[in-house]
Amino acid sequence: VTKFPLPVLNSFLRSFSYVAKIADQTETAVMEEYLKIRWQEHEPHMGPLPAGDSAIAKMRLLCMAQMTASLVLQGFDNLSADDRDLLNVEMSRTGCVGQSYSQSLVPKEVNQRQEGLAFLVYYGPAFLQNLGIDMPTRRLAILAEIYRCARELWPASIEKVSSTVTIRIDMIKALSTVDMVDAALYGDVWVLLRHNATEAFVERSSKKKLNQMVSAGQRFQVLDVTACVMAYNP
User: Fold this and answer.
1) How much is the pTM?
2) What 8-state DSSP symbol labels residue 104?
3) How many domains does the chain have?
4) Cα–Cα distances in angstroms (integers) from residue 96 to residues 89, 101, 157, 164, in the given order
5) Could you tell me the residue range of the domain that residue 111 belongs to?
6) Are 202 and 174 in contact (CB under 8 A)?
7) For 55-67, what is each residue's pLDDT tens digit?
């Protein structure tokens, strides 16, 4: 604990006061209140609370990125409309029946038509915090690609609105985008492999292993990491 930067430790301790509120409020209402407080208390100051389609996505990204939040949010604004819209939608899903964030903070399609599954990107915070010399926009583009591939494996439906799937990105959480692209030099690809009904993992795969997965009928999506990186040149 002593290795945590003080602002990070304070925000962690601050979160405990919100847990008790679930007894009287919905999970989503408590989460929204917490996101707003984190934005307002962030150092350096981030300005007024965000509004519009990107609001929840931006506040969640701030919490995930922590000390790199300013850079990550600048990168978010530089994303293509497709990548930004995708993150807006996927990060605004609640995974709770009959619950939605405030209408003014999410895309209309999320508020008006509640669908699931919702995705939890495990190690997503570490992926954004380990920026190194990477362009934040490139890491966000890869995050968008992960959500995009996950949605191909689990199409949105009203029946699944209360369900959540965990997307594990352990293997890439500390890699630079250059490291990820270099996999192609060895003939490898990055895939999102569905392990079961509630989990998928980002994995590095050789073409031989890829063929074996196809033969075995395993469900996966190839992540176009190179395109994500090349789309955002310095």
Assistant:
1) 0.93
2) G
3) 1
4) 15, 11, 13, 9
5) 51-230
6) no
7) 999 999 999 999 9
